[in-house]
Amino acid sequence: MIEKHLTSLQNPLVKQVIHLRDRHERDKTGLFLIEGYREILRAVDAGWKLEQLLVCSELFLGSNEPTLIQRIASRGTQVITASEKVFQKISYRDRPDGLLAIAPQRTTKLSDFNLQNRANKHPFYVVAEAIEKPGNLGTILRSSDAVGVSGLIVCDRCTDIYNPNVVRASVGTLFTVPTVEAQGEETLRWLKEQGIAILAATPSATHAFTQVDLVGPLAIAVGTEQLGLSERWMKEADLQVRIPMNGVADSLNVAMATTLLLYEVLRQRQQAQL
Amino acid sequence: MIEKHLTSLQNPLVKQVIHLRDRHERDKTGLFLIEGYREILRAVDAGWKLEQLLVCSELFLGSNEPTLIQRIASRGTQVITASEKVFQKISYRDRPDGLLAIAPQRTTKLSDFNLQNRANKHPFYVVAEAIEKPGNLGTILRSSDAVGVSGLIVCDRCTDIYNPNVVRASVGTLFTVPTVEAQGEETLRWLKEQGIAILAATPSATHAFTQVDLVGPLAIAVGTEQLGLSERWMKEADLQVRIPMNGVADSLNVAMATTLLLYEVLRQRQQAQL
User: Fold this and answer.
1) Would B197 disulfide with which of B106, B114, B231, B238, CB 3.0-4.6 Å?
2) How far is A8 from chain B (nearest CA, A)?
3) Average pLDDT of each block of 10 consecutive residues along chain B (274 residues)?
4) Parallel, antiparallel, or unpaired for β A78-82 and A124-129?
5) What is the largest CA-CA distance in chain A?
């Protein structure tokens, strides 16, 4: 099923891959890039469809690549080999490992979560409002996967979740954490309808995050790197907690703060034997 | 005290600043760069000596810069104004804010911590072994500041703590967290002498990090992004804990893992009313 061999930098597919680094092109085509063995493996394991797979065996780092390629090809995905020169050009990594896929984005809506909320007495979401840095969004996905959240809701997006650096920083957990992009207003309404309490971290809160009961249905809401959560979310929050800051700095990085809150929920729920 | 005005890109000082982005030059001269109002303010507040301050008022973002400049000049630091073109050239930020300092590095040794360990019944260190990414080291500093550690020990360094991106990611907490660079062997010996238990996180540990008593004298040891803590440290660890991983990924980013462990120590110590 290996169908083509790419050797020319002028090939339209080379240009398409490079264009897909830009959000404009991703929005227009509904496609995105998945680069790297681990990331592609996790996408495939999660049942994600791939449209095309580009491979360059000279760059493989391990010995499992052919098995993965075979698996992908057997599902009918087009596999295209590329010369090392071409692959270096299309890769956005410092050290490409010879695997890059083009895949269709998924469109999930908030209402797609309704069913799981009915089945789960303790739904547990993260709301990431207007996060700017792809690395932070990717890290939030990675921590969300680690604690096993019900879903991540990306509100009023600044960075789209299909940005190549989100995919990379998430180490492929983008494919396993149920993720939705939605507007703030709509998300607030939905959380209230579903009876899910909103938790916000703010330095002005009375209680530390380890002193507040986080066992019930919960959405952890976090905001931009510069300004934190917006006024609207802060006002609507059912629970406010602070993260102790004993030094000179007045805040943690947003991905750190989110990770701390996520694991505190996990700790409390494990203690309550849920 | 404003002594010079830099308008030429050929000026040797311009070249020196640019060279100081490289570790080789930092190691050779014992100098490093501090860029940005917040970072320089924290250095000055912490009593850090500055050698020269470069300023470009056209790029100031706020109105407090002249007060800070005055304060620095009154201590005898040479203040040099630069044209916008020159400042844009010497800045390593996307959005320079018109302040950049050259400062001497500090050389702190492990034995400099001995005195504080005698005064503090619950010393609390972080050992960061061979961390590669400056952003991770900076974030570890930021979390270390937030919980108020006794010190950070950078072992068998890959990234030096005076890398401009460490300074930036630390948001200036490099100047307030007591930090030492040391060799692994020496650090292990020193921790044992000081009666400080070593804590390592490993997926194979029986107990979760929230289930182990972390109240006593403690050093949290974390290792490289790719491979984690070395065999040597793992073997010498007095306590092993695991961070629950309920998803598909098998580990967290090293800065996340460190932050979780740091805050768990804080939680337990606050609960024990220390």
Assistant:
1) B238
2) 34
3) 79 96 96 97 96 97 96 95 96 95 95 88 94 94 97 92 95 95 96 97 94 97 90 96 94 94 96 84
4) unpaired
5) 63
